[in-house]
Design brief:
Two copies of one chain form a homodimer. In chain A, about 40% of the residues lie in helices and about 20% in strands. Chain A is built from 18 helices and 19 strands. At the A-B interface, strand 4, helix 3, helix 5 and helix 10 of A face strand 4, helix 3, helix 5 and helix 10 of B.
Chain lengths: ~525, ~525
């Protein structure tokens, strides 16, 4: 059947979707979410059908992905033809019924996801089934491999290629900004791609972007690495393992993450990594709650890595409180730069040199941590950091004071006396986000105390930074409901929370603008 | 944040969706499929966000459901505010993790589905989880009840109210067109609502529509029933248990149906049924493959019915071949009318009087089947049928020859000799659909033989009816791949299929236009 094209003028989000009125759909026997062939001249694509009412019967509305694929203009004529469901739907159904999938079947599924041939519903069914039934090692390997093969890769023609990744969940974790220059300054190659924040106040790409551009092309990345041995770029637009981004979009509203092993391993393999250290922060608020669980996950990553031809070591790290004293892009870039320049944040240095040390020992260096620490202490790492910033297009002479921080601030002081017993990461992250992070680079939270510090009434606890008074007030409201710190004598602080909530602690804060 | 409205001019399909460009979405910290409040003046609704690229940053595109709810026009200004995820998402997550749901939680989920607050992804996760983990009796009751309470109901102020439903899967099943007039002619109330075909060549609403309108309002239905005791109408636009239609839309691409008990029971409860007979066709090609399985399903329906205050009996029926000799709306209406007028199709009469008989005995009539048969034989049922047709707006004097059948025909004769051993329902249904059914009312298939009949070479097997030569040819192509009949000596016909397919039977057909 022939239709006129109406361009919607925007994208559907990596899916090829057309909209047909329900009357012609009925005539053609097409249902919502069926697939059809869209033909213009001698070019064909497969698109997913949305059924609408009140569209003219001779018109289909098309999203940009379809318009682009067929080079369509308003009023163009296209032919719509029925087509069979992709075989990948059958494979998803089989997987739901407990049939194990061959590599060819996994590849078909991932290919159809990348090419926009599976609807959100079908991807959600796959995600749900894998969440409920678990993904085994073989499948994790298959999905990783298929994600790599359906995307672009960075070919560096070097060996070994080192990389790191953190499972995340700890705010303020600017470890990468130290590990990359340490490793690169010692002559090793580390082409680090990072994500932006999804639900946290800052991702590594957001932090680095305070100092230099991070949105580089594959060719630009190659040039930076050939000059400096390393890079710190945003991986999101490079087309590495693109299936992952689409799957994450479906996982997000469900708060599920069954693909987390393939998701990470595919990204690492796509940049050609041969040696990878995986940081597994553990503790309340992180993804991995216990050390036992961390060991199980570590085994899986190591095994999948082996099958993909990558050597993986895992570092189980402490995730009970933020890393360092800052959360939010600019504050974290400021802290990382300070630390590289010798004004050390002790836990950040310990974590970064430990992680770098593991990586160094994986490629044959003895006493990795000591070597890493020396690279930091000697200023080699700072020098390398500035080289990388310059190669990516930033100012190599940047000083911490040059970094603009939010100028609307509130300092929160303690009303209590005693040791800091616990810190609630997610409350601090929430405050930083309401203050404007990660979009407002200068927004965030700066801590003045960490677990184990002793405070007395009047001592500063933390400071909220924002670029807007309104957002600062929003952030402040969190404190009416939630406490980011537990301070006091342990024998009076054993109750962390009660359900349903009924706050009995008195509010231990004094606000100061 | 304030935006200008751009109307898309068509519906999203019972979901409230707005489209925002990714830049302002980032500023607001909104992700794809998050929910937001859309505010115009003092009116608020909750909508699901789609993120697009290339929309003007100050503009949101809205589907008709949102435009209608807020009475929006192109260029109107609206405010977009963040809102929390509905609690129903948490309940879905809990259910996935094995937590049983309270009635209040199930009600929230169903209400949010009806009000368009859950995305396809979240509904797909629920459907998948219930498919994998199974829905227990308590939940089936809860979901049924919630579906009824979130929709419209038909209040007839009569008692008892009889009803029937078939689980389906057998093509040509026009039983309802006999059961309704039989029951109504005996003075009982039977307000039958039916669906149109989703994947079959005809639904009951499609068949009845050949003879009279079926798209009646609730008030019109009440009037028809008050005049005639019965009706045969389309239930799709009445707003009975509307959650069901939305869930079915998500189940369809997954070919899953975990909601089949609530789906049916909610529709029955919504019309006020007190006594329901459920027809469970069993056999290859139907939904229920074995009699043992049918018994288990029957128990579940009876139990859920009891909790909803409905008496349910189940009739397990033979589903190995089509009911009667016709498939396709007009052919089936023609056969039903003929049968009511005394030109009986034996298996159709046996099935209809058996089902009607069960229903009669449920309300205290002895020898139900004999009573039903007498209503048919005496012409009472035909008289009632014509009354109902007239009350719904059709011609009460319609004769079978008045019904227009497709004028493009092909007769298929046997090249083999022997008994008909099996009939493949799904192949026949496929042929009827490719010939144009259910949209082309005159299209379909007419059988000349059924299982157990003996044929010789040259005997007619079946005839394809169509309204278009092109569709007739399409339908014919099925025969190159598939055989709708198994004919011959049982000792040569034991192989039904092989996988992968390699046809070794010679094609046992002669075509005749």
């Amino acid at each position: 059947m022939r239709f006129k094209v109406k361009l919607l003028g925007f994208e559907a989000g990596k899916k090829r979707i057309i909209v047909i009125d329900d009357e012609p759909a009925k005539v053609m026997g097409i249902h919502a979410l069926d697939r059809v062939i869209v033909r213009k001249g001698d070019r064909d694509i497969v698109a997913i059908v949305n059924i609408a009412r009140y569209l003219p019967h001779d018109t289909i509305a098309v999203y940009d992905e379809v318009a682009k694929a067929l080079d369509l203009r308003d009023g163009d004529e296209v032919e719509i033809l029925p087509t069979e469901r992709p075989a990948s739907i059958k494979y998803i159904r089989n997987r739901m019924n407990g049939v194990s999938l061959s590599y060819e079947e996994v590849y078909e599924i991932i290919k159809d996801i990348v090419e926009g041939r599976l609807s959100d519903i079908e991807i959600a069914a796959l995600v749900t089934a894998l969440h409920l039934q678990g993904m085994n090692i073989e499948e994790a390997y298959y999905f990783s491999k298929a994600m790599v093969e359906t995307g672009k890769t960075i070919e560096l023609d070097r060996y070994p290629i080192l990389d790191k990744h953190s499972l995340g969940g700890v705010p303020g974790d600017k470890t990468t900004m130290l590990v990359v220059p340490i490793i690169a300054s010692l002559g090793h190659t580390i082409p680090k791609t990072s994500s932006r924040a999804i639900t946290s106040p800052a991702g590594t790409a957001d932090r680095v972007e305070v100092l230099c551009p991070v949105d580089l092309s594959v060719d630009e990345i190659k040039e930076v690495v050939s000059k400096t041995n390393g890079c710190m770029v945003w991986g999101g637009a490079l087309g590495l393992a693109p299936a992952d981004d689409i799957i994450i979009r479906v996982e997000y509203p469900l708060s599920l993450d069954p693909f987390f092993i393939p998701s990470i391993m595919a990204k690492k393999k796509s940049v050609g990594a041969t040696h990878v250290v995986l940081d597994i922060p553990t503790g309340r608020g992180t993804k991995v709650k216990t050390i036992g669980e961390a060991h199980l996950i570590a085994r899986s990553f190591i095994e999948v890595g082996k099958r993909l031809g990558m050597k993986v070591n895992c570092a189980i790290t402490l995730g009970e409180e933020p890393v360092g004293y800052t959360m939010g892009p600019a504050l974290e870039a400021w802290e990382a730069l300070n630390t590289l320049m010798g004004n050390w944040t002790p836990d950040l240095v310990d974590k970064a040199t430990s992680v770098a040390g593991v990586l160094l020992e994986m490629v044959g260096v003895s006493n990795g941590k000591a070597v890493a620490l020396e690279a930091l202490r000697s200023g080699k790492a700072e020098k390398k950091f500035r080289e990388i910033i310059e190669a990516q297009g930033g100012d190599p002479n940047v000083k911490p004071d040059d970094i603009p921080l939010g100028d609307k601030k509130i300092l929160i002081r303690s009303e209590m006396k005693g040791p800091v017993l616990w810190i609630n990461n997610s409350v601090l992250a929430e405050i930083a986000k309401l203050a404007g992070a990660p979009k407002d680079k200068g927004a965030g939270v700066r801590l003045y105390v960490k677990i184990g510090d002793r405070v007395k009434a009047g001592d500063p606890l933390f400071e909220i930074y924002s670029e807007s008074e309104f957002k600062l007030d929003q952030a402040l409201k969190v404190l009416e409901e939630e406490m980011p710190f537990g301070i006091g004598r342990i024998e009076e602080m054993m109750l962390i929370d009660r359900i349903p909530t009924k706050r009995e602690h008195r509010r231990p804060f004094i606000l100061e603008r």
